[in-house]
Design goal:
351 residues; alpha+beta; GMP Synthetase, Chain A, domain 3; 2 domains; 4-stranded mixed beta sheet; 7% strand
């Protein structure tokens, strides 16, 4: 049964419509489309699981094409748009349904990514993973525009073909899968940063979709936002302000570094542990860093050491064999040993 669509609020009628307003029939059709996309039915569950699987495989293989494909088939945008519409209409039933579908979808996607992460132990973070592990304030702007465009496209069927582009821009499923992959491969910092990106996308899309619906003339019950909706909007705005702290901090850090793409990526945790354990038996040698280079050859690993004396004979060969054995394959290992500066002795003057 189609819900009765309320009339436009008086303040919006006086203000006029910055966007082409929807007539009554268009608003009814919009409500029907949004409600159908906010249900967590069988199709939603299957598509969420499949899109999460695609995204996880794409992240593990560092395949941009596969990650984009996962964005296109992910159904999470529907419930988020439904939540935005429910705030505008004061429709608590639609809000509960939309948020329930969103939380269920997140649980499905996280479960799939965790399973695939466990099936791929020793995963070395790829460029696709690292890209979701460093969100900034620009990601917030992308999410705001994505939610606005999605709501506008749903209300204006003539531009509905833009929804595919919105799905790519919003990128909801990849950061969710990075959380699961990071948690199962000893990358808690990547998982935390990806969670920040995911929350940023969710909150910004709901709020911007609500704003788009208001500007499209989708009315508010009784001419004003209901009490519970105001509280939810306030909570989302406070969460947005909280998320701005790490987002702005990351922007400042990126400007300070002046390099968006790192020259090196971490190796798998078991590789670093094996190298560290071996070096414990080598006297006067300290591991500074071990990493994969981001330029060709992509399979090379660089090890930077600090030593107070020349390396013992055979140390470089042993490290090379160890890394090749642990990582598998014919890895090009580059070992650089830095000699520690020796301080000149000082003598106290006899008195």
């Amino acid at each position: 049964m189609t819900q009765k669509v309320p009339e436009n609020p008086k303040w919006l009628s006086r203000l006029g419509h910055p966007l082409p307003a929807l007539d009554r029939e268009d608003r009814k059709a919009l409500v029907d489309r949004v409600e159908s996309g906010a249900r967590a039915g069988t199709d939603f569950t299957i598509m969420m699981a499949l899109s999460s699987g695609l995204a996880s495989f794409g992240l593990l293989q560092d395949s941009t094409a596969v990650v984009i494909g996962a964005m296109l088939v992910a159904p999470l945008m529907g419930p988020l748009i439904g939540a935005g519409l429910s705030l505008v209409q004061g429709n608590v039933s639609l809000f509960r349904k939309s948020m329930g579908a969103t939380l269920f979808g997140l649980l499905v996607g996280l479960s799939v990514s965790i399973v695939l992460g466990l099936l791929n132990p020793g995963f070395e973070p790829s460029l696709e993973v690292e890209a979701r592990g460093n969100p900034d304030v620009f990601d917030l702007g992308i999410a705001v525009l994505s939610g606005f465009v999605a709501a506008y496209a749903l209300g204006r069927p003539s531009v509905a073909n833009t929804l595919a582009g919105v799905a790519i821009a919003a990128a909801l499923v990849p950061p969710l899968c990075v959380v699961g992959i990071g948690l199962t491969n000893d990358r808690p910092l990547v998982a935390i940063n990806s969670t920040i990106l995911l929350l940023t996308n969710l909150v910004a899309i709901i709020l911007s979709a609500a704003g788009a619906f208001i500007l499209l003339g989708v009315g508010v019950t009784g001419g004003s936002i209901s009490g519970w909706a105001r509280r939810v909007v306030l909570l989302l705005l406070m969460l947005t302000l909280f998320l701005l702290l790490p987002l702005v901090s990351n922007v400042a850090e990126q400007k300070r570094r002046g390099q968006a793409r790192p020259l090196n990526y971490p190796v798998a945790s078991h590789v670093q542990e094996a190298v560290s354990e071996y070096l414990e038996s080598v006297p006067d040698v300290t591991l500074i860093t071990i990493a994969r280079v981001s330029v060709e050859p992509a399979s090379s690993v660089s090890i930077l050491l600090s030593a107070s004396a020349p390396l013992p004979v055979g140390t470089k060969d042993e490290l090379t064999r160890l890394v090749q054995q642990v990582r598998g394959g014919n890895t090009d290992v580059r070992i650089i040993a830095l000699r520690e500066a020796q301080e000149a002795p000082t003598f106290e003057e006899s008195k």
